[in-house]
Amino acid sequence: MHAGAPRDLSLAHAPLSTLFPPQSSDRTPWRLSDQQLSSFRQHGFVVGPRILDALQIEQLRAELAVLTQPGHPGSEFWYEYHSNESRDPDRVLFHALGAWRIGVGLHDLLWHPAITTPASQLLGGAVRFWHDQLFCKPALHGGVVAWHQDYSYWTRTRPMAHLTCWIGLDDSTVDNGCVCYVPGSHQWDLLPITGLAGDMQAIQGVLSEEQWEQFRNPVPVQLKAGECVFHHPLTVHGSFENRTDRPRRAVVVNMILDGVCSESDQPLLEGVPAIAPGTLLGGRFFPLLYSPAETAEIG
Predict the structure, then answer these.
(1) What is the domain-level CATH number for residue 153?
(2) Is residue 275 assigned to a domain?
(3) Could you give the CA distance from residue 150 to residue 247 in angstroms, rounded to a whole number?
(4) What is the pLDDT of residues 2-39, one digit of tens each?
(5) Staple 257 to which of 3, 13, 105, 161, CB 3.0 to 4.6 Å?
(6) Which residues lie across from 229 on neighbouring strands?
């Protein structure tokens, strides 16, 4: 790498800045209550603690503004990059994977105790990184994220011990395309993939009559900027268009319980060396984010 070239931040398995609280912080403020844990088990999603303050939001927005420009420094580190994943140029959905390798704030976010503390509770142990995502819906013509189950895209890993944390960088509302969930759908079997950025009705073709009846009452989760929601890998969710005069930007952190293995002899992410089937995820691209046992020992 020549002088001045961007550094691949996947080489660093600890925060690089002081933007977020240190790992040694008292984690009590971020722990989910018994009622929240029960709600997650019943519905397949739960609103978590406030993740970001105003300064942190501005830092991540600033990094995002750079990363949404094609050809920016470090663009070679993306796993996926879609300036518009929608086929309709009038309905734009920016979607990219791998921001943690490029932006310091987006890198350090992974170790934020406000994320890893509830994640450990929901996963039931040590938390390891799977991959991140950016979703941006521009003002007036933001596209949809069609109904789907996350794990339908992740069957290259086993067992199914995954968790998603969706974090808003703007207020998310019904009008600008907040995330909506089908409560209890995490109890369904795995559904076929019907597309991520197209027809919101496509999923109807793979649902039973009983599932479709349950589907008729999705729950919109409206959040203030900096707030988050956690969901199960089988919970059906999606989001509608942004028709407002402001953008709807979000960062997603996908995590796994330490002990999840590769189930494929192909690379799990574009540009990442293959991990043999049956081998634990780990190493440079799947760092350990938080282990309650280790924290207890340190304390």
Answers:
(1) 2.60.120.620
(2) no
(3) 24
(4) 345 689 999 999 999 999 999 888 999 999 999 999 99
(5) 161
(6) 47, 166
The structure tokens listed for 56 are 């942190």
Vertex 105, ends 100 and 107: CA angle to 5°?
25
Query: What is the 8-class DSSP label of residue 154?
Result: -
**DSSP class of residue 276?**
-
Residue in this structure with the two tokens 């209550």, named with its chain if needed: 33
Q: Which one, of 69, 48, 91, lies nearest residue 177 by Cα?
A: 91
CA atoms of 221 and 167, how far apart (whole Å):
12
| 295 band by pLDDT with thresholds 50, 70 and 90 | very low
Instruction: Determine contact, residues 290/120, Cβ cutoff 8 Å.
Output: yes
Q: Rounded to whole angstroms, what are the CA distances from 47 to 30, 33, 144, 207? A: 12, 11, 21, 26
Polymer length of the chain: 299
Rounded Cα distance between 173 and 227, Å, is 12
Q: What is the pTM of this model?
A: 0.95
| Structural domain containing residue 291 | 18-264+280-298
Burial of residue 2 (CB within 10 Å: 0-12, 13-18, 19+) is: exposed
How far apart CA 171 and CA 245 sit, in angstroms, is 12
Amino acid (one-letter) located at 171: D
Does the structure show a pLDDT above 50 at 123?
yes
In a domain, 7, yes or no: no
Q: Count the domains in the chain.
A: 1
Spatial separation of the C-alpha atoms in residues 128 and 281, rounded to whole Å: 8
Q: Please report, for residues 139, 209, 236, the alpha-carbon distance to residue 189 in angstroms, rounded to integers and kept in the order given.
A: 36, 14, 11
Q: Are 182 and 218 in contact (CB under 8 A)?
A: yes
Give dist(CA 177, CA 155) in Å, integer. Answer: 27
Number of helical H runs and strand E runs in the chain: 6, 14
